[in-house]
Amino acid sequence: MSFPGRYLLLAVTALPLVGGGCSTSRHELADSTSLPTRFTLRERSLDSNMSPRALDEPEIHTVAFRAAETDDAVAASMDAAFQAAALVPSEDSVHESGLTLQAIEELAIANNPAIQQANAASARAGGIRAQVGLKPNPSIGYFGEEIGNEGAGGLHGVFISQTFVRGDKLAWNQQVVGHDVNAMNWQIETQRHRVRTDIRVAFYNALAAQKRLDLARDFRRVAEEGVSVSEERVVAKVGTRPDVLQSQIQLNEVDLSIQQAEFELSASLNELAALAGVSDLGSTTLTGELKTGLDSRNTESEFAQIVSASPQLAAAQARVDRARANIQRQQVQPIPNVTAQLGAGGDDGTGNAFANVQLSLPVPVHNRNQGNIRAAQAEYCAATQNVQRIRQSIRLDLAQVMREFNIAKATVQQYEKSILPKAEETLKLMQEARDAGEFDFLRVLTARRAYFDANLRYVTAMSQLAQANAKIDGLLLTGGLSNAVTYGVGDDLRGQALSGQ
By percentage, how much of the chain surpasses pLDDT 90? Predict the structure, then answer.
């Protein structure tokens, strides 16, 4: 189902959590009649012009070589080429094209099957809730007695029968399944978070692959110029054959890096398309920034924030409410239903009319529903422990993601403050030394390769930091396609209520 131009965003409020104990107090049971969850729908308009920004292809000028000025000319040309590989593009090099993270998120929310499946599960729960509260249908029939007796007429008549369900069992049925509907609605929001986080992690991974590919392609021009330089130096009798071979090896390594980056980018785009619920994104250019917030995150503060906002925990709390309501439902089951029957007919032998009234109800002598009551209490105990299990699981996952965040943050900061500036300074000094005749060009090229490799590692660290931030901001909810939401409860409560046993 798609909503062109607009989509609906489900906003939910967090539920209070129940403690880890298994005892059921009278006060807790009384609270089960309330439904604390509030749902609101906000309509958000999509930007009709969502074209993102992408880098212009840098223009590289060729340089005519002359033996006497080979090094200086090529050095100037390669300075320009390497400058084009800067990680942060200038305003003039950016244009509107490609896909943004927001556009892909919008696409995923509308098309991801996991969200649609959760919606269907919620609708099924709503149908069951309506069914379990329906009153039993009346029965009508015909009766005849002494039919065919010689010398005596038969008795013929019609009757209507109705079962009256006592103890508010049907209302309690709806109350119990209503909490299931509540849980399913929270599961929808959980799936939305899972899909959104998956999209963000995959987007940053693909964007990093795209930036590494751009860097490799830009540096290939530098390496290609290096091969030309080494060959020109041999012609000018100021270089050697090993210099040519070394520069060619470096060019081959860069070509391999480009091929690997292309494969990685293609796979990342395919992963992104699968999460977005589309068959293919094509050769689309992604637009966005890898560098996300470097603000410090405190584990305990993040844990408290996730626990208070987690729809997964809210769904678990709804199951606690469901189990609590089911205890009360099972406690009223022994109250017997009353079946009333009214009949009227005539006696063919005497010509007299007659009527009869019949009332019946089961007597709870042997079956007082004690087994189901104990089972409901155990279900409540399991539901409260499930809330605690999810809390501990959140703490465990947060510890792992915080480790990723802290390592990536420290790496990015170290590269920005120390490694990249030193690599750039080393390159500058090597070029100055070469200009003074102290080093040959290939040593400068080696320094450039070191600077290139440092930028690649910097891009990887920024990608890891962005993905860690996305996981924390997404409440640690991932795996939208691997966590299916289903509702397998039937209308058994209604059958139990009507049986009177």
Answer: 58
> Taken in order 304, 310, 314, 317, is the CA torsion positive or negative?
negative
Residue 87 has pLDDT above 60, yes or no: no
Query: Is residue 455 within 8 Å of 420, Cβ to Cβ?
Result: yes
Superfamily designation of domain 6-49+65-136+174-336+370-499: Outer membrane efflux proteins (OEP) (1.20.1600.10)
pTM of the model: 0.75
Q: Per-domain residue ranges for the chain?
A: 6-49+65-136+174-336+370-499
CA distances to 21, 67, 69, 71, 249 from 237, in Å: 87, 9, 13, 13, 21
Strand (E) or helix (H) holding 421: helix 420-435
CA dihedral (214, 215, 221, 227) positive or negative: negative
Spell out where 172-294 has E strands: 286-287
Q: Please give the pLDDT value at position 322.
A: 97
Residues in the chain: 501
172 in Cβ contact with 164 (< 8 Å):
no
Contacts of 490 by beta carbon, 8 Å cutoff, 6+ apart = 128
The set of residues, in sequence order, having a beta carbon less than 8 Å from that of 452 and lying 6+ positions away, is 82, 85, 215, 219, 222
DSSP H/E element including 96: strand 94-96
Least confident of 10-19, 278-287, 309-318, 440-449: 10-19
- 116 pLDDT above the threshold of 50: yes
Amino acid letter, residue 208: A
